[in-house]
Design brief:
Layout (H helix, E strand, L loop, with lengths): L1 E4 L6 H8 L3 H7 L13 E4 L6 E3 L2 E6 L5 H7 L5 E9 L5 E2 L7 H9 L3 E6 L10 H8 L2 H18 L3 E4 L9 H17 L3 E6 L17 H7 L2 E4 L17 H11 L8 E6 L2 E5 L10 E3 L1 H11 L4 E3 L4 E8 L2 E6 L3 H14 L3 E5 L6 H11 E3 L1
Parallel strand pairs: 4-5, 4-17, 5-7, 7-8, 8-9, 9-10, 10-11, 11-17
Antiparallel strand pairs: 1-2, 3-18, 5-6, 12-13, 12-16, 14-15, 15-16
């Protein structure tokens, strides 16, 4: 397969004639909508994808229980792991029911496709928000952590989960070592019962990096404790921050290169964003709030407003601007070019695989590109 960048005057018919690929395949693979207008600078995936092939890397994806059943079933054939988001817990180690709906149907669907369903554990209290006081309570009290682990094992056995993903954020610096010990205890118990354990890591670039997201995570120790880790290499551009790439490759590379000094490559999954943001301008910190959009939607906005999609060569990410109702907007998102740069990083460093936040929106070209790069013909 190849990536074709739309030039002025291009149409789907002219691209099909130039590349020798069927028009309908280009339309289908790239989720084009009638009348199939294109944006200058739009990246199209062109060619034949790998079929009758087996996956050569681990591929995970997070999803909420309110995901469209159609989207989930379209995506599951590409996944080795489905992380269901999420279960919380009380300060005393009691599990809380999933915050976002019933998860049993997702578990059954995953098993039907040969994908491992993974229970995502988050320090969510009754308000559904991250709460580091819950972390502090459980990781520093043996009775509470024992209760939480026991409850996890019981529920996983009942529901059919095959692993647990520990996604604790905003850990207090003084709880760093206690959190590591907790992860080690969870992983040991899970292995004994035939399950595996992963832990999500904020995107650090050094061991002494400051900030509440980073100081509570000891990369080396957590890498030793867990079976594998996820580098959350996204959210440089985020809802309340200034317009920029969600996962600029230059920053992602820095995180990977640091992680490799602490954790073996075969234990590392690269986080991949499956979304973009639309910022109204001018940006005012504390006031401006970006809207989350999916990657197909981003291109449709560019087409609607006649915007040229540009590509930042440093971040290796697409972006464009447009004006609506007198307000200027700036959009950053992912396309097959930006995703290719991330996949090539997985290849370059021999990482275990990649995990998507999230798979809630269907982006067909992403999965076709992934299969072309990381599948081996049977």
């Amino acid at each position: 397969m190849e990536i074709y960048v739309v030039k002025p005057g291009d149409t789907v018919d002219s691209i099909a004639a130039y590349t020798g690929v069927d028009v309908q395949k280009i339309i289908y693979d790239n989720q084009l909508i009638f009348p199939y207008e294109l944006a200058v600078g739009q990246a199209l995936l062109i060619g034949n994808d790998m079929r009758n092939a087996t996956r050569a890397i681990a591929v995970g994806g997070y999803a909420y229980p309110f995901i469209s059943e159609w989207v989930l079933r379209q995506t599951l054939p590409y996944l080795s792991e489905l992380s269901v988001f999420s279960y919380g817990f009380t300060a005393e180690g009691e599990l809380l029911a999933p915050f976002f709906g019933d998860d049993q149907w997702m578990i059954q669907a995953a098993l039907e496709f040969g994908t491992q369903p993974i229970l995502t554990l988050t320090p969510f209290g009754n308000d559904g928000n991250f709460n580091n006081r819950l972390i502090n309570s459980v990781v520093n009290n043996t009775a509470y952590s024992t209760r939480l682990i026991r409850n996890l094992l019981e529920l996983m056995g009942e529901k059919g989960y095959q692993g647990v993903d520990i996604d604790f954020e905003f850990i207090l610096p003084q709880d760093r070592d206690a959190f590591t010990l907790f992860v080690r205890r969870v992983a040991e118990e899970m292995r004994y019962h035939g399950y595996h354990t992963s832990v999500a890591l904020a995107p650090k670039t050094s061991s002494d990096q400051q900030g509440l997201l980073y100081e509570g995570k000891d990369y080396r120790a957590l890498g030793e404790a867990a079976d594998h880790v996820l580098l959350m290499t996204y959210e440089w551009g985020y809802t309340y921050g200034p317009p920029m790439a969600v996962a600029p490759i230059n920053q992602v590379r820095r995180v990977v290169e640091y992680a490799l000094t602490q954790i073996p490559a075969e234990k590392i999954d690269l986080g991949v964003p499956n979304y973009g943001y639309d910022w109204p301008l001018p940006f005012e910190r504390g006031i401006t709030q970006a809207t989350t959009i999916n990657n197909v939607q981003a291109v449709r906005i560019a087409v609607e407003y006649g915007s040229e999609i540009r590509f930042d060569e440093v971040a290796e990410s697409p972006y464009f601007t447009y004006e609506s109702e007198g307000v200027e907007h700036e959009v950053w998102f992912e396309d097959v070019r930006s995703l290719l740069s991330k996949f090539e990083l997985v290849k370059e460093y021999g990482l275990r695989g990649c995990t998507y936040w999230t798979i809630m929106q269907w982006f067909r070209a992403n999965w076709l590109l992934l299969r072309n790069l990381f599948y081996v013909r049977k």
